[in-house]
Amino acid sequence: MRLDFFDFQLFLNVMECGSLTKGAEQSAISLQAASERIKKIEQQFQVSLFTRHASGVKLTLAGQSFAEHAQQLMQQSQQLEQAMLPFATGTHSSMTLWCNSSAQSEYLPALLPQYLMENPQLQIELKEAESTDIVHALQQGSAKLGLISSFFDTQNLKSLAFADDPLVLICPIDHALTHKQSLHLKDTLQYAFVGLMQYHSLQQSIESQAKLLGFPIQYRLRLPNFSAMAQVVSNGVGIAIIPKRAAQRLGPHYAFQQVALFGEWANRQLLLAAKDFDQLPQSYQHFSQFLIQNKAHVL
């Protein structure tokens, strides 16, 4: 005999009613059919699940153990049904990935199309924020998964290496800093900058480093993306700090010089972070595995 979920539910109904007759009625089968099913379960495991009395039935020790497992299996059956329901009905599910500016513009566009095509019922929202804000959101539970810079403290979080993401200075070809091989941030702050708009997390991070040095950044222009910044820098307006990956992507299109930057804040990694990967919803665990397994595609 092969047990199915109906057998488990029948057993639980008999147990809760304390009566084979009432358990059969609750299961919508005849008393004879219920008795035969219970007997076959007992024969399969070579145990007695109930003791029969004139007033009804009571569980044996074996029956109590069987009941615990039957209840767990029925709960898991219900959870499985709920998990499969969106796929069966075509209902769309959604996830939110918190990420900094660099992850959003330079890395995720290379990975997300494949995942979305493989999971047509899924919607992914990218929420851009500064790494410190992402760390706080993860710690507070308002975010489940985030891509952050390794420069920031990830205490009480779990993290996995995702990609190297150093920052570089880009400057016009004839700029005074062009001949430098590498620079500290303080060596650049006397010059006019081209920056991202104020709401961009990367620009906020750069400004935070400048404030620690006691120097404000002098902006000649703020723009919404790295491409616009590279174009303006190539026209001689000012210097800018952008991810090295963006500079490599834009270098063939605009005339500017790259200069390496010293410091942990600039020579950073992108980390995939969560409070506890094992405690994430199944959909987030699956997405996390995809990002880590496919990170080579963005290196």
TrEMBL record:
Residues covered by the HTH lysR-type domain: 1-60
Keywords assigned by UniProt, alphabetized: DNA-binding, Transcription, Transcription regulation
Superkingdom as given in the UniProt entry: Bacteria
Gene3D superfamilies, per database record: 3.40.190.290, Winged helix-like DNA-binding domain superfamily/Winged helix DNA-binding domain
Keyword Metal-binding among record annotations: no
SUPFAM superfamilies in UniProt: Periplasmic binding protein-like II, Winged helix' DNA-binding domain
Pfam entry (one): LysR_substrate
Cross-referenced InterPro entries: HTH-type_LysR_regulators, LysR_HTH_N, LysR_subst-bd, WH-like_DNA-bd_sf, WH_DNA-bd_sf
GO molecular function, one term: DNA binding
Assigned GO CC terms: cytosol
Family: Belongs to the LysR transcriptional regulatory family.
PANTHER family recorded: HTH-TYPE TRANSCRIPTIONAL REGULATOR YBHD (PTHR30419), LYSR FAMILY TRANSCRIPTIONAL REGULATOR (PTHR30419:SF2)
Protein name per its UniProtKB record: LysR family transcriptional regulator
Organism annotation: Acinetobacter lanii
